[in-house]
Amino acid sequence: MKLPLLTALFLLGLAPFVRADVTVYPASSGRADASELVVYSSLDDPLARPMIKAFQTANPDVAVRYEDMLTGEIFDRVVAETDKGDATADFAFSSAMDLQVKLVNDGYAQVSRLPMSGRWPAWANWRDTAYALTFEPAVFVYHKASFAEEAPPSTRAEFIDYLSRKGEAVFGRIGTYDIERSGVGFLFMSRDQEQFDDIWSVVRAMGAAGVKLYSTSQAILERVADGRFVLGYNILGSYAADWASSHPDVGIVLPKDYTVVMSRIGLVPQAARSAELGRRFLAFFMSREGQTILTQELQIPAVSPDVAQGNTATAMRELLGGQLKPVPVSPGLMVYLDQVKRARLIQKWNDALRLQ
Question: 224-242 burial by CB neighbour count: b if 16+ within 10 A, else e?
């Protein structure tokens, strides 16, 4: 299995400097000699701030150094620093489920047995080391005004039928992730392939409709919001819900045939500067208080079975049942880190789009 480029360059001593966005939160006690928790995260700092502040309220003598970076950079930093014999982050939080599991598999993360470990859903806990902390479905988004006279598609078969019926009227007005540039887009497509035998009919239909590809959720959502697009396929639900809350023309559908659910994974690296602080933050993230903050203030669905109201896995399961297909935290996530398998899926995707 090939190493990511940055990892290979680090090992050769040739790596470029990874410019993380760093925010330091002084200890709320004001102590200058306070212990410091170091976090590597792919969650934007403004979104993470309520969780950090609440943690510091419970731990007033802990300062937090929050390093916001891309998912691949988190993986590469942890690997390179560990291999050099240096200390690394105390807590790593990333939406790249495959890379987080690879850190565990390759010995770069340590066991964290915590108060909630035994009660955490089995699919969301691998070896008491990697924990899924969020519950984020892939959804269809649509421009409400464009569906004033008919309901938006609610299954992939209906999605194909809509694109076929509308033809030129919707050509170039469909958006989805570019799976070559978007990690979450690639994850959703790989799960589609496992869940739906006829998924390539969906891809061909999008190709025939002149689908536009983007690496970010925002690029698609802003075009749906203003009517340039009528539909977005497989969009990360947490971003869609946040966008819809301030853009009333954005509608959301959780596909009824099946809804893939991804998670952001938290773990304590093997070479953590302070593993005890890392576990303390992870335990807070998993606690009733932490998961409530996640769903109410960060607007990201919570996993914990102790948090059942509102935007949570428990509430969604009660409403939708087997329609939800969460991605298990397991070695199966690493299948497409094999560069040959990854390249084959991307080639098949590109061929299906180009055939149209």
Answer: bbeeebbbbbbbbbbbbbb
pTM over 0.70: yes
Per-residue model confidence as pLDDT tens digits over 248-297: 999 999 999 999 999 999 999 999 999 999 999 999 999 999 999 999 99
Residues belonging to the chain = 356
Structure tokens at 351: 């061929």
Phi, psi (degrees; rounded to nearest 5) at 176: -155, 180
In terms of DSSP H, where are the helices of 63-113? 71-83, 97-105
**Beta carbons of 285 and 51 less than 8 angstroms apart:** yes
